[in-house]
Write a structure and sequence with these properties.
It comes from Bombilactobacillus mellifer. This protein is of the alpha/beta class. The chain is built from nine helices and five strands. The protein has a five-stranded parallel sheet with strand order 2-3-1-4-5, sandwiched between helices. Bound molecules: adenosine-5'-triphosphate and 2'-deoxy-guanosine.
Length: about 220
């Protein structure tokens, strides 16, 4: 299983689609547009942070179990990022200490049940998308989900900056298996075919290196 990580709007769903098609495997997307809790969270984070977190955890766990059925399936966000979001929201006063404790214990419990945990196997590859604030904002504006727009809610500027700051440390600390980064400011894999092919070559090379190591 290959998992993508990175900031809101970095391009995970787009690259998930491109990569799964390239590898002839299945893509598994994060539940966003049909997620009833997400708009509630953005409108009232304090009330809905915990519920949203449980919602995502449940859906992500179900996707992982299905994605593990075949090799090289692609998942558009890793379960390892969930706590990054929740802990930051908790520090902003949007969750109680008890909610954090319940969530962390539940997450640990669920991680122990994942088939790859049982076999001491992490995702085969984590692909982390690195992006600047300005580029990320341009993507968010292009996509146009109303509740993610800073012009509708100025507090999102700080929220996005803080998340972006934490993501780099999160990637440095990720130690569960092979990992790599793609620079989304450099490669426009959505609209530029040459960039897309370059990104796929970089990923193929990494997958090949890993195969060689396994044999
Ligand atoms: N490299 C890119 N070049 C141009 N546009 C891009 C690029 N990556 C993503 N986009 C555009 O940015 C928007 C967000 O991309 P996408 O939905 O793939 O991001 P995401 O990381 O999955 O976001 P989220 O975490 O919010 O689900 C889409 O409109 C997509 O077409
Ligand atoms: N609070 C919170 N916790 C999460 O674990 C989480 N995972 C994703 N998201 C938000 C970001 C995008 O708006 C949208 C799509 O990624 O969903 C999250 N928000």
């Amino acid at each position: 299983m290959i998992v993508l990580s990175g900031m809101i709007g970095a391009g995970k769903s787009s690259l998930t689609n491109i990569l799964a098609e390239h590898l002839g495997t299945q893509a598994f997307y994060e539940q966003v547009d049909d997620n009833p809790v997400l708009p509630l969270f953005y409108a009232n984070p304090k009330k809905y942070a915990f519920l949203l977190q449980i919602y995502f955890l449940n859906k992500r766990f179900a996707s992982i179990k299905r994605a593990l059925a075949d090799d090289n399936n692609v998942l558009d966000r890793s379960i390892y990022e969930d706590a990054l979001f929740f802990h930051m929201n908790a520090e902003m006063g949007r969750a109680t200490e008890q909610e954090v404790q319940v969530y962390d214990e539940l997450l640990d419990n669920m991680m122990e049940e994942l088939p790859y945990a049982a076999h001491k196997k992490a995702p085969d590859l984590l692909i982390h998308l690195v992006i600047s604030y300005d580029k990320m904002l341009a993507h968010i504006q292009k996509r146009g989900r109303p509740y993610e727009q800073p012009q509708n809610d100025a507090s999102l500027v700080d929220y996005y900056h803080n998340l972006l700051d934490r993501y780099q440390q999160w990637y440095q600390d990720y130690h569960y298996g092979p990992k790599m980064q793609i620079d989304c400011d450099k490669y426009d894999f959505v609209d530029n075919l040459a960039d897309r092919q370059a990104v796929l070559r970089i990923i193929d090379k990494k997958l090949q290196e890993r195969k060689t190591l396994d044999n």
